[in-house]
Amino acid sequence: MTNAAAAPLPSRITVLSGGVGGARFIQGVLRLIERNDATAGTEVTVIANTGDDIWLHGLKVCPDLDTVMYTLGNGIDPERGWGRTDETWHAKEELAAYGVEPTWFGLGDRDLATHLVRTQMLDAGFGLSAVTAALCKRWLEPVHGSRVRLLPMSEDRIETHVAIEDPETGDRKAVHFQEYWIRHQASVPAFSVVPIGAPEAKPGPGVIEAITEADVVIVPPSNPVVSVGTILAVPGVRDAVRATAAPVVGVSGIVGDDHVRGMARQLLGIIGVEVSAAGVAEHYGARNGGDGSGGILDGWLVDTVDAGLVPRIEAAGLAARAVPLMMTDHDATADMAAAALALVGL
Ligand code: GDP
Ligand code: CA
Predict the structure, then answer these.
(1) 178 with 311, same domain?
(2) Domain range spanning residue 278?
(3) What CATH number is given to the structural domain containing 204?
(4) Which end of the chain, N or C, is surrounded by fewer C-beta atoms within 10 Å?
């Protein structure tokens, strides 16, 4: 894709993001903006999942908000994909030496400062959106000015839990998603995924407007169950996505019948969705499907290895195309973002 051929970008791009997959995709969107006309004033609003949030040692930890913030602010550890560069783990070691649980969560010393600031601001009465904006002043403004806004999907407490079989006792119990993922490595038998608190929650400030007033809504390759699925579980969000005048286009995080990284395969299995780019497309569904399924998408990009699935996705009422979907660098990811926009006529 060359600059000469580039169409003007839509002015308001809204992305529904989880952590690593969403953040990397947004870097591609930002590269695409740079490659086109960085002066044209395109704005990117990120609505981030907060269902992974957890209270630890008295601190409010928001893994997906922080992954997006650190990634776009060039503070992320590139190898791990989460947490800070040049991280040290002294506080974690000291807590473990006291025998304080949980010991399985990776709480780095630098990262800890973010959670301290966040928790103090929440204690002082600020909402999570204002707190996130304050944290982003350090990370996003110096790099992106006012181009990127990061909005928590909700300010209310929502914590995804997974019903598992306890590997030691064989009993069924519900654990926080972080415990399923980090402590159990998503490798214990699991039966259901529940975003606790979501049914009673309200969308965060600006969330519904960001969807309604967007020129395009993009569903990045984020986890369809515990990232995008949780955002859609906040009352009002799915309806806003279904109703917006903007086209809604998604990018598959499932390539060749498996996730690229993470645990989408396990989670799709738990909710009974076929682990393929077509299975996820049908799970999201077409907005104009006419079958009353309440779908959210107009278009769906799959990887070239899944080109054979395009007719099936089209039969589900979606525009579909196969292009390379490996986010190997910002330019490859920018090409993905451009293909997503082109698929819905932008
Ligand atoms: P998390 O909250 O950190 O798990 O991150 P997300 O939910 O935002 O994204 C996780 C998803 O991104 C996983 O299901 C991966 O399969 C997907 N993913 C990660 N890297 C790539 C990539 O290079 N290409 C594609 N297509 N998907 C990716
Ligand atoms: Ca996450």
Answers:
(1) no
(2) 1-49+200-346
(3) 3.40.50.10680
(4) N
Residue 301 and residue 249 in contact, taking contact as beta carbons nearer than 8 Å = yes
Query: Is 129's C-beta closer than 6 angstroms to any atom of ligand 1?
Result: no
Give the model's confidence band at 2: pLDDT under 50 very low, under 70 low, under 90 confident, else very high: very low
Tens digits of per-residue pLDDT, 139-169? 999 999 999 999 999 999 999 999 999 989 9
29 and 121: one domain?
no
Dmax over CA atoms of the chain, in Å, equals: 63
Instruction: Give the chain's domain count.
Output: 3
For residue 53, the SS3 value is: coil
Ligand 1 nearest atom to the CA of residue 259, by list position: 16
**How far apart are the C-alpha atoms of 204 and 39, rounded to whole Å?**
29
Evaluate if residue 5 carries a pLDDT over 70.
no
Give the rounded percent of residues in the chain with a pLDDT score beyond 90: 94
Ligand 1 within 6 A of 304 CB?
Answer: no
Ligand nearest to the CA of 302: 1
Whether 72 and 177 have beta carbons less than 8 Å apart is answered as: no
Residue with tokens 């004033």: 41
116 and 167, same domain (yes or no): no
* CATH number of the domain residue 98 falls in: 1.10.8.240
Question: Is residue 223 in contact with ligand 1, taking CB distance under 6 Å?
Answer: yes
Distance, in Å, from the CA atom of 213 to the CA atom of 205, rounded to the nearest integer, reads: 14
- Indicate whether 3 pLDDT > 70: no
SS3 per-residue string spanning 237-275: HHHHHHHCCCCEEEECCEECCEECCCCHHHHHHHHCCCC
* Cα(136)–Cα(142) distance, integer angstroms: 9
Contact 246, 299 (CB under 8 A): no
